[in-house]
Design brief:
The complex is a heterodimer of chains A (681) and B (547).
Chain A (H helix, E strand, L loop, with lengths): L3 E7 L3 E7 L5 E7 L5 H15 L7 E8 L1 H8 L5 E6 L5 H4 L24 E4 L2 E2 L5 E3 L3 H14 L3 E5 L8 H13 L5 E3 H4 L5 H31 L6 E4 L5 E3 H6 L7 H16 L5 E6 L4 E7 L2 E2 L1 E2 L2 E3 L2 E3 L3 E2 L2 E3 L5 E5 L5 E7 L16 E2 H8 L7 E2 L3 E2 L2 H16 L3 H23 L11 E5 L3 H12 L3 E4 L6 H7 L3 E12 L5 H21 L7 E11 L6 E5 L6 H19 L8 E12 L22 E4 L2 E4 L1 E4 L8 E3 L2 E5 L2 E5 L3 E5 L5 E5 L3
Parallel strand pairs in A: 1-4, 4-11, 5-6, 5-9, 9-10, 13-26, 26-27, 34-36
Antiparallel strand pairs in A: 1-2, 2-3, 7-8, 11-12, 13-14, 14-15, 14-20, 16-19, 17-18, 21-22, 21-23, 24-25, 27-39, 28-31, 29-30, 29-31, 32-33, 35-38, 36-37, 38-39
Chain B lengths: L7 H25 L3 H4 L4 E7 L4 E4 L10 H12 L9 E4 L11 E10 L2 E11 L26 E7 L2 E2 L1 H10 L3 H29 L1 H25 L5 E6 L12 E9 L2 E5 L15 H15 L13 E4 L17 H19 L14 E7 L5 E7 L28 H7 L2 E8 L15 E7 L3 E7 L22 E5 L7 E2 L3 E7 L3 E5 L28
The chains are: A alpha+beta (681), B alpha+beta (547).
């Protein structure tokens, strides 16, 4: 076991820390986020978790950080004054977008507004054809004129997006050289470096997002590194990217658009690693907090990826973990409309006023209140350090908002809220598993977040998932994921070729170029010498389709056999997803992808454990299946590795409550995780 | 079928499941599809239906194709009778006079059997790039009868008990201009329908057939109840609106008029289109099912929480005289119907805005420039290229209209310029917002789009149409706002610097180097401009960077 490793995840409400010390013991921390100074808050949080482990920051051998700084900037519109420089005729590419409306039946809802307003979009003459040949040379004088206008306009960053730069980057490079010379100190980002793929709007929007985030995120990572080293951290701070790998702070500062889903990605990695630790490499990650539930599928320890996503209504074409987020959390509000339809979420009571049971003046009936009424959450129980659950308030809210309007008892009303919330989440789980060809019966469910472990057994039953894993610290899954992530750099480009007419040597040459670029990024992040690997994937489709399927390609060099294997994998995947093979024969490669993974060293951990638990005295009951039923109540802190238990049971711990349904048995793993298994019937 | 009344919680759980299944079907369909009109532009929808053919859930790609599939399915059920429907069947219908829209929209339905019992239907509608007929792409405003509009499927078995009816597939292949794309897209539709069947089967396995089946009519009741409760709160007055087309489809025909009177009768809404002009000799007539779709679209814009299912029929009474533009008699041509559907939606939204002023909006573009061009590249390879332009949205009581959107019952995505040049012998030279095209006023209408297409291939030809090229048909201003700018189509022949105007709807032959330009219309303005001279042109009022 090497030196201590720490992860610090700064969310909107809480900052979570996790640290595995030299002896393999795991330490965790949860403190309110320092919203006034996120960089300082991160460093302070890091110091806090080190202190818990009895270490100084100088003792840390590895530090990784998850941040919402990019996400918040996008959601709050705190974006830099950036400019777009594009091919003549396409100045309005961002404003026009896809010409689709966000809400079809709401004539008053405004369309998505562009990341860079029209008045800061500029055109330059010069055009390449689809095959990369030059139709019109670049007008260098025109670029200089634009540079003058950019200076005049006081822009803070520039996105350069020229048509067909993914085929040939020379015009974008020329524009960049001129702009950098004319505008020293202003960051210039090129579409060919950010998202070298066809479909100009999506590439332009992703590049524009990078530009509008550059100054802010650049400042943040510098402040973060400074705050960390001031407090004695001697190693570079790594940042979690949306793709589930970390990169150096410097690289993150150059590709801030890659941080847009940093937090959810870290949580999925946390689920993947903790699943792996208990022998579950194939799983669904289910992270349910106060407002949202995030779900993702992990196969063979690797989270499934997608290459396009939408964040706050903005398309982002960058590799990212395929996380589906829905508005279902502990704070989700239940309501019955005048026609007797019960809805739960996506509106949330948040942390303030929060559920009625929090006693902060909330009157809405929430999922948390339903758990209090049904007895999963004990009235009078202390949540965290400052909050006592008020059972009366919860019951009153559930009665007024749900039970009375539906003519149900308060317990039935609460059960109804939970059923509807579970149905919404089951729908999301189906969408990422069954709907994508992954049979949930072959997966385990890893439950995280404060609310996740209360819903895990119900959801597993609904989907036929046979096993549930509840990590020892479900509330700090992202922080643990941070310190267990690899360094990862994705590079790729559009490369449209028919497989039938393809010389494997040409493909190999292209991939060689990507590999060189990927290794260069690894080296720049100080991982060139580590055990590192470059993997390749091909995005393919039947000629004429638009939606690509991604298949792995064996290590280089590419030859006829490895290419044939990729084609076979593609055909198999198409059959699995759509259950037929198109009559037309042609298959084409659309995009080449390479991932450079730098192994930052593995870590395993053990839970200190405690004395064998004594069951709470009988008398506690829970409302399930229409009646009050006795159940076992356990204290997580008292559970020792190896200990077995059986449902119905509730296990309480500081940051969550675990509901073990009847028909489930469980055992505590050495990592501290609880592994629950549904009994065969 | 069953007197079981599903409890409200199970009801909500199943409603969410039905919606999820329809969404999953739509994902299967667009991911597996081959034609850009489906895979890039999303001109399709998927739905689930009860045993009698009422729509209970649907995906949300394009409103123009919703609120009508039930007519087609009911025609199929009537034609075959339940006894002749078997598990593993797939039936195809596109006949506009049997619940179709226009012939390129193929509807495919698959019955769902659980334990030998018919419990419902799974269905898909998708716009195919060409289904044969007089012109490439099938659609033209200038067809004079349905028989010029390609293959007509009256609800026949494409697949019978799992066996593909190869004769039908061969007939299709022999009659359409891009058989590989059409057959592959039909396969994608079949895959989507099968997915719906599998998912409903699984749902019945979890909740029981009785429960699942009982939840279906209740959804429709809830939908209607929601609408009726809203209508009951609306004022008791009759509001009217009318709109004119550019012409009658052919330039020498008088502009066709759509007229509506809307009133609330108790808690039902009466939409009376009785004043509308008689059917036309051109093909911009709208089959009844599409008229119904436009009416439900408009109602949904004014009542929250509705789904576009037939449960609304209990709440909305739609009166459309037979033999009119909006309910023509066979064999009138209908392939250009979407232009008139959009105008109809515009007129209905205008009228409903008078009943519910807080949701009023100025006129949005219904120019809908659309083209299907066939071209040969240097190697003699022939392709069919299609594109559709959005335009300006109408201004609102408290904000400007949206720039560059596909409005009302449309929601087609703009085709990528890079994809165009990668896959077709065309180069898109520019795609811009049109300065000054939004109508002025207190709030400005949204801007139109102009797109320029250069033919790189050796020759090309094809149909196109654009509405709102004449002042009388421009997107209307509201409450003192100015109308949006009109649309147009022009050509600049290779080697010439002269931009020639083309007719608003027509057929064009092109040579290498020719440049065709389409310009949509801008949205209407809302409210009088505070200090502006009312006589000043709309271009003076653009508050945002000249747009």
């Amino acid at each position: 076991m090497g030196p201590a490793r720490a992860g610090i995840d700064v969310g909107g409400t809480f900052t979570d820390g996790a640290l595995i010390d030299g002896a393999g013991e795991l330490h965790v921390l949860k403190v309110p986020t320092d919203r006034a100074d996120l960089a300082r808050g991160s460093a302070v949080g890091l110091a806090g978790v080190a202190e818990r482990a009895g270490l100084a920051l100088g003792d840390l051998g590895y530090v990784a950080h998850g941040t919402t700084v990019a996400t918040n900037a996008l959601v709050e519109g705190a974006l830099a004054r950036a400019a777009l420089v594009t091919t003549a005729g396409f100045r309005d590419v961002l404003a026009i977008g896809t010409q689709q409306r966000p809400r079809l039946y709401d004539l008053q809802a405004p369309a998505r507004s562009p990341l860079i307003p029209r008045e800061r979009c500029y055109e330059v003459r010069g055009r390449l054809a689809a095959d990369g040949s030059e139709v019109e040379p670049l007008d260098a004088d025109g670029v200089r004129r634009v540079a003058g206008e950019l200076r005049e306009a006081g822009v803070e960053a520039v996105a350069v997006v020229l048509l067909f730069s993914f085929v040939d980057r020379r015009h974008e490079d020329e524009v960049a050289a001129i702009l950098r010379a004319e505008l020293p100190g202003v960051p210039v980002t090129l579409s060919v470096d950010v998202a070298p793929e066809f479909r100009e709007y999506h590439r332009a929007n992703t590049t524009a997002l990078n530009a509008v985030l550059l100054p802010l995120v650049g400042r943040y990572v510098r402040a973060l590194s400074a705050a960390a080293s001031e407090r004695g951290v001697t190693v570079p701070v790594h940042l979690m990217q949306s793709n589930g790998g970390v990169s150096t702070a410097q690289r993150a500062g150059e590709l801030p658009a890659g941080l847009i889903a940093s937090g959810p990605a870290a949580a999925v990695i946390g689920a993947a690693r903790q699943g792996d630790a208990v022998g579950e490499p194939d799983l669904v990650s289910f992270d349910m907090g106060g407002t949202t539930a995030d779900v993702a599928v992990v196969l063979a320890g690797r989270p499934l990826q997608r290459f396009q996503g939408e964040h706050d209504g903005q398309p982002v074409n960058l590799p990212q973990i395929d996380v589906l987020s829905i508005g279902a959390g502990g704070g989700s509000i239940a309501s019955v409309d005048e026609f007797g339809a019960l809805a739960v979420g996506p509106r949330s009571a948040g942390a303030r006023p929060g559920p009625a049971a929090y006693g902060h003046g909330g009157t809405a009936a929430t999922v948390t209140d339903a758990h209090v009424v049904t007895g999963v959450l004990r009235s009078g129980r202390l949540l965290g350090t400052e909050l006592t659950l008020d059972g009366e308030a919860a019951a009153e809210a559930v009665r007024r908002e749900v039970a009375d309007p539906l003519g149900l008892s308060v317990e039935e009303g609460a059960a109804a809220i939970l059923r509807v919330a579970n149905a919404n989440m089951a729908q999301a789980l189906r969408a990422i598993s069954v709907a994508r060809g992954h049979d949930p019966r072959a997966l385990a469910l890893v439950a995280m977040g404060g609310a996740g472990p209360m819903h895990a057994c119900d959801l597993a039953e609904e989907l036929g998932i046979p096993r549930v894993v509840v990590p020892r610290h479900p509330g700090v899954g992202a922080a643990l994921g941070l310190l267990l992530s690899d360094v990862r750099h994705d590079v790729g480009r559009s490369w449209l070729r028919s497989v039938a007419a393809l010389d494997p040597a040409d493909l190999d040459a292209e991939l060689g170029e990507l590999e060189r670029r990927a290794r260069e990024l690894l080296e720049q992040s100080g991982h060139g010498e580590d055990a590192s690997a470059v993997g390749f994937e091909l995005e393919m489709r039947y000629q004429g389709q638009a939606y690509n399927l991604t298949v792995p390609l064996a290590p280089r060099p590419v030859d006829a056999a490895t290419l044939a294997a990729a084609v076979e994998a593609f055909e198999e995947q198409h059959r699995m997803l759509y259950r037929y093979t198109p009559a037309v024969a042609g298959i084409e490669i659309v995009t080449l992808r390479a991932q450079a993974v730098g192994d930052v060293g593995s870590a395993s951990w053990e839970d200190g454990g405690g004395a064998a638990a004594a069951a709470e005295p009988p008398g506690r009951e829970i409302w399930q299946r229409g009646e009050w039923r006795p159940l076992t109540v356990l204290d997580r802190g008292q559970l020792a590795p190896g200990q077995a238990l059986a449902g119905p049971a509730v296990i309480e711990q500081e940051d969550t409550t675990i509901l073990v349904n009847e028909g489930w048995t469980g055992a505590v793993h050495a990592s501290g995780a609880l592994r629950l298994v549904k009994e065969e019937r | 079928m069953s007197a079981t009344r599903t409890d409200p919680v199970t009801q909500e759980v199943l409603a969410a499941a039905f919606r999820g299944i329809a969404d999953e079907m739509s994902i299967v369909e667009y991911r597996a599809s081959f034609s850009p009109i489906i895979r890039e532009m999303f001109d399709f929808n998927c739905g689930l239906f009860d045993r009698e053919g009422a729509m209970i859930a649907h995906s949300e790609q394009i409103p123009a194709q919703l609120g009508l599939m039930q007519f087609a399915l009911k025609a199929i059920i009537e034609r075959w009778g339940e006894s002749r429907i078997a598990a593993g069947d797939a039936l195809i219908l596109n006949d506009p006079y049997l619940g179709g829209t226009h012939t390129p929209d193929l509807q495919i339905f698959t019955p769902i059997f659980v334990a030998g019992q018919l419990v419902g239907w799974s269905g898909s509608i998708a716009h195919h790039i060409d289904i044969g007929g007089r012109v490439p792409g099938t659609v033209s405003a200038h067809n004079t009868e349905i028989f010029q509009e390609g293959l007509i499927f009256p609800g026949i078995k494409l697949v019978a008990a799992g066996e593909r009816n190869e004769a039908v597939f061969e007939l299709i292949a022999a009659n359409v201009r891009d058989p590989a794309a059409t057959l592959s897209d039909i396969d994608a539709q079949l895959a989507a329908c099968r997915r719906g069947v599998e998912r409903i089967e699984a749902l019945c396995g979890r909740y029981g057939v009785e429960t699942v089946v009982a939840a279906m009519p209740r959804l429709l009741e809830l939908n209607a109840a929601r609408a009726r409760a809203s209508f009951a709160r609306w004022p008791r007055e009759t509001v009217r609106a009318e709109g004119l087309m550019d012409d009658g489809g052919f330039p020498d025909l008088e502009p066709a008029a759509i007229r509506v009177a809307i009133s609330v009768e108790g808690d039902r809404l009466l939409i009376d289109l009785g004043g509308t002009d008689p059917q036309l000799e051109s093909s911009i007539n709208v089959p009844y099912s599409s008229t119904h779709a436009a009416a439900l679209f408009a109602v949904r814009c004014f009542v929250d929480g509705l789904s576009q299912s037939v449960g609304l029929d209990d709440a909305v009474r739609l009166v459309v005289p037979a033999g009119s533009v909006l309910n023509p008699r066979r064999p009138a041509g209908v392939s250009g119907r979407h232009l008139t559907v959009q105008r109809l939606a515009d007129v209905l939204v205008d009228a409903l805005g008078k009943l519910v002023p807080e949701r009023a909006i100025a006129g949005s573009q219904v120019a809908f420039p659309a083209l299907v061009f066939q071209a040969d590249d240097e190697d003699g390879r022939r392709t069919l290229f299609t594109d559709i332009l959005g335009g300006g949205g109408g201004a609102r009581p408290d904000r400007d209209g949206d720039d560059a959107i596909d409005t009302y019952t449309g929601n087609i995505a703009l085709f990528s310029a890079e994809l165009t040049e990668l896959e077709y012998p065309w180069r898109i030279e520019s795609t811009r917002l049109v300065d000054g095209s939004g109508g002025g006023g207190r709030f400005r209408g949204g801007a139109a789009i102009r797109r320029d297409y250069r033919l790189l291939g050796t020759r090309g030809e094809g149909t196109y149409y654009v509405e709102q090229t004449r002042e009388h048909a421009a997107p209307g201003g509201r409450d003192g706002g100015s109308p949006g700018a009109t649309a147009k189509v022009t050509v600049k022949r290779a080697g010439s610097e002269v931009e020639e105007a083309l007719p608003s709807k027509g057929y064009v032959n092109l040579r290498q180097g020719d440049l065709v330009s389409f310009v949509s219309s801008g949205g209407g303005g809302y409210g009088a401009a505070p200090e502006a001279d009312p006589a000043a042109p709309a271009t003076e009022n653009g508050p945002r960077d000249g747009v």
